[in-house]
Amino acid sequence: MRIIRYETPQGGARWGVLDPDGTVRAAEGDPYDGGLTPGAAVGDSGSVRLLAPVTPSTILCVGRNYADHAAEFGNPVPKEPLIFLKPPSSIAGPGDEVVHPALSGRLDPEAELVVVIGRRGRRVAPEDAMDLVFGYTLGNDVTARDIQKSDPQWTRGKGFDTFCPLGPWVDTDFDPSDVRVTCAVNGELRQDGRTRDFIFGIPELIAYISAFTTLVPGDIIMTGTPPGVRPVKPGDTMTVAVEGLGELSNPVVAESA
């Protein structure tokens, strides 16, 4: 099932389900507690404005989870998962503008497979970790690279408003074990990798993270980005793609005065 959030004509948000033919159906219920019941069709994915499909309380990100990406910036491969956070205010949806802040001279997109948590968990063993997974979506860990490098912590460089595009849906039946993850800018392929090259796999990441914080439904884990990172500028369009899961595109705009 592909689960979405979409904007209603009144300007609110509600849950929906995307049919295989692209039809958007209104849905009742809670996707994490009892599931959703699809209802009447409200349009198709081209006529309905899709929102970020999750509203996580915690956005957990994994740095340097592809060896080639660590190498391209001259960084060592971590011996254990390198975890950082993004604020919920950084979330953007499919097609939303990503703002290039005036404070930064270099903005980089980072294509990522995103794990969506569906059950509460604390101190979860690796062999039980996948029981917590609700589904998967796409993410872009947008980074003000110069600020990230200048600060001892990554919060500012990773945490500007609009720096976490997510979407366009959550797929609850997706197999993430060996899929291609890419980022193209204006149609030009830049990043290119496969999830089989993760340094730390999804069960290991869930176990590591849940050892220090409680995961709750709707939380997300951004699993790291493949090599090929290069900067973007206002006017560019970034397109993250995960094989078999979909595409997520966002334009870059300059910060207004």
TrEMBL record:
Q: Which domain of life is it from?
A: Bacteria
Protein name per Swiss-Prot or TrEMBL: 2-keto-4-pentenoate hydratase/2-oxohepta-3-ene-1,7-dioic acid hydratase (Catechol pathway)
InterPro entries with a match to the protein in the record = Fumarylacetoacetase-like_C, Fumarylacetoacetase_C_sf, Rv2993c-like_N
Q: Which organism is it from?
A: Nonomuraea maritima
Q: Which Gene3D superfamilies does the protein's record reference?
A: Fumarylacetoacetase-like, C-terminal domain
What sequence ranges are listed for the domain Rv2993c-like N-terminal? 1-53
Q: Which GO terms describe its biological process?
A: carboxylic acid metabolic process
- A Pfam family (short name) is FAA_hydrolase
PANTHER family (UniProt xref) = ACYLPYRUVASE, ACYLPYRUVASE FAHD1, MITOCHONDRIAL
Keyword flag Secreted: no
